[in-house]
Each structure stands twice: as C-alpha cells, then as structure tokens.
Amino acid sequence: MTIAPVVVEVEVPLDPQAAFALFTEQVGTWWPLETHSVFGRDAVDVRFPACADGPIVEVSSAGEESTWGTVQQFDPPALVRFTWHPGRLPDTAQEVEVAFTPTSRGTAVRLVHTGWEAAGGRAAEIRDDYATGWVGVLDRFTAAVPVRR
Amino acid sequence: MQAVQLTQTLAALGDPTRRAVLEGLRGGELSVGELAKGLPVSRPAVSQHLAVLHECGLVEHRPAGRRRLYRIEPAGFEPVRAYVESFWTEVLGSYAAAAHGQTTEGGTP
Question: How far apart are CA B69 and CA B20, in angstroms?
Fold first, then answer.
C-alpha cells in the first residue's frame, strides 16, 4: 500500500536566506494560528528552533505549550526537515521537509509531507486534530481552494 | 461531498479493531477466515468491520471460487491525503502573503 506524499509548492519574492528565515524564526508572524493550531483561538505564538533537535512549540494565552514536532535537519537557507505531530504524541509523527531553491523571481518553497503508508494507524489522531483545532479548514478548502491532485 | 466522505473515512479508521483488520491486509489479499486467524476477533466481527471499510472505499474484494478475497484500496485514502494537502496549501498561502508583505515594506528585515 503506497499513498503519495503531500507536496505543496509556492514561490515567494525573497532570496532564499530571507525566505528560510521567514519560514523558521519568523513563523510566529504569519502562521494562521486561529485555524491551524492546537489551542485555536487561545493560541498566541508558535516558535521555531534555530538548530536541529529543537522543538517546534505552540504557546497559548495561558502560557500552555504544545509541541508540534522536532527539527531533524536545519540547513539554512536550503532545507529544513522536521517531525510533525501537532495535537498528537510523538510516536504518531509524520515527516515534513521544506526545500528553498533560488529562482529568477525569488525562491521556490517546496513542502513535502510524508508518512502516509501508515495513515491507517494515524488517521484517528488526525481526526482528533480536526475536532479540536483545525476547525473549518476542510470546509473552506473544499469550497474555495483548488486542491492539487 | 468530499467532506462527507472524509468524515466517513476517518470515522471508519477511528476504531482500533477496524484498523487492525485493515492493517492485516497490508501484506496482500486475504479471505475473512485467514484474516480472522491473525486477529483476536471473531470471524463475524471481522466481516462486519470489512463491510464498513468497503463502504467507505478503503477495502475492495473479489470472488475467488467459493471465497471472497479482500484487499486494501489505496484510492480510499485520498480524502485523508487531500485534507492534509489543503492544510498545507493554506499554511503556505499565509507564508507567501507574509513574504509579499515584506517586499512591499521595502526589502527584507
């Protein structure tokens, strides 16, 4: 059973250094916390470590913390790779790799989310995320965003 | 329609025993009897779980003599995969908007 990885790409008008910094150390300035977080409306920040082995941490208004994953590879400005288990235990983690490639107009950012071979065992936790935090994402997307196949 | 299918698929996968039935098929096609041998569940219970998995498209079957062989249908996982993809599409959309914001503010900070 092989399930294709999730691949999403975007091009931004920044050089790779700036694009990498925006994705990592400045993640708290743009991440859509209200809809894409464990604490939802109570989420106030998300912090990205500046080295491998550090945790990606979401912070609530009450000061609670939730670890989304752990950085496995930190190679600015080319690549960052991390485990991914927001709202779940680390042993259900999948893996996300983000590559930054210079283009004539800036930087191509390619995100690959793998680990779907085990989706059968993990989908329940993904469902829990859906119930607790990522409310409305699906509805908004099926309505508005062209989903790449 | 896709939202309905996603909910149904995730509900089907939410049951640990049903996941065990599904995972029992990862090695290849099996009959209900063969599948039940490897699981701490009765044969009728396995049949029932297979029916649910078949209904939401996660499992297919074909006749083989007097038996029926079951297999995993990877296409059935597509709603779950598409859901996660939509998540990242939105996140990268926010990221790109922030990047464009930096540019219009007159360069990188």
Answer: 17
